Amino acid sequence: EEEVGTMIFGVVKSPLLLEVWLSRMDGHMGLANSLAMKIAGIDKNTNDPVGGTIVRTTEREPTGLLVDAAMKLVFNVIPEVSVNDRREALLTASRHALMRGVTTVVDVGSYVPGTSEEQTWQDFSDVYEWAHSMGKMMIRVCLFFPMPTWPRVSDLIHERGRSLSGWIHLGGVKAFLDGSLGSSSAWFYEPYEDVPGDYGLQLLDMDVLLNATLESDKSGLQVAIHAIGDKANDMLLDMFDKVVSLNGTKDRRFRIEHAQHLSPGAATRFGEHGIIASVQPDHLLDDADSAGRKIGVERAERSSYLFRSLLAGGAHLAFGSDWPVSDIYPLQAIRTAMSRKLPGWEAPWISAERLPLDDSLKAHTISAAYACFLDHVLGSLVEGKYADFVVLPSTSWREFADDIPGHVLATYVNGKQAYP
Ligand SMILES: *[C@@H]1O[C@H](CO)[C@@H](O)[C@H](O)[C@H]1NC(C)=O
Ligand SMILES: *[C@@H]1O[C@H](CO)[C@@H](O)[C@H](O)[C@H]1NC(C)=O
């Protein structure tokens, strides 16, 4: 199927046969071939795990498509990536980020629904602590850990502080309430147009999520929760209301990751409790074309990527890439937020939600820093903050906006040239 996978996640060679697992670019769905399914023990008698779907034929035979938590069945049998490969991946990814003019990232860990919470912690000790102690950090990171492990994050911060140094900052915890639009697992009030009767997936029980949020919040951790569908976003906004009423007002900077489709009026609710809409303009490039097919044109046009409405409602709007889901490239994301046009499109998608340059720049700099409690040291060039900046070919956006690639001439971190 055309929408499935662009990335080979794990291929195991044997003399005659290949197990193949293709992961969809958003990490919410994957396709296993028959041998991989056999090794994972998936057949018509396997039940859907909680928070996941094994896509089946009318005869209940699995098709090979696994959605959200169902991917766990295959992840269990994929060999682990070696420590050396993971370390090398951090260095390669850091160089790639610098080339694109990125000096700080929020890393929410390798945890996606269906994977082990432990991997993120192993990456912290094997990869980040290694790079840090060896003086190999090239970009700054703010780390979020899987929410069920909040007591460990809290202990770690007590022991080591919020910043291990200028390079590694401990942010808080992350959870997923629903899946994605592309995998038809984002949680909506109304069913998908192309899958009648299907409203998407609720990945967590609201009482469990409220409990973990209250506990995390009480221990001073920042909470970031993934919500894409309009229902998932409303459920989170309601839940955050409850946390504030139970635990009082304070500077918590709750993050809703993606806030992609909002019900009427929801955009104005973010401002009430200073909630951060952590959005990714370049996801729009993947969804603008298919959203109408998935949820209908009317619903798509009133609910999708409401950047301007969010800002107007007082939300803190922070841009990011969700890399590797979309490309890590702030200049391109800024252009997308301003134009809302796919390559080759004449008209913008939902033109009223386009942003001016100034708002887009802020969303990718100072607001992104604010969204991880780092605005006191990052996000603008003022005395007392780190000298992290890029050199562009012109001070006029118009002069290079039509031809973005290759336009980061140099990237500086801590006042030192880090790229090229
Ligand atoms: C969360 O659940 C645990 C275990 O049931 C309970 O002990 C704790 O009091 C709950 N916390 C909150 C804030 O409700
Ligand atoms: C937050 O809620 C928890 C659990 O209900 C409670 O133990 C704690 O005292 C509250 N904190 C504040 C600041 O109200």
From TrEMBL:
Q: Which Gene3D superfamilies match?
A: Metal-dependent hydrolases (3.20.20.140)
Lineage top rank: taxon:
Eukaryota
Segments forming domain Amidohydrolase:
20-419
Q: Give start-end ranges for the coiled-coil region(s).
A: none
Pfam assignment, any one = Amidohydro_3
- Signal sequence, renumbered to the chain: none
Checking CDD domains in the record gives: YtcJ_like
What is the recorded name of this protein? Amidohydrolase 3 domain-containing protein
What species does this protein belong to? Aegilops tauschii subsp. strangulata
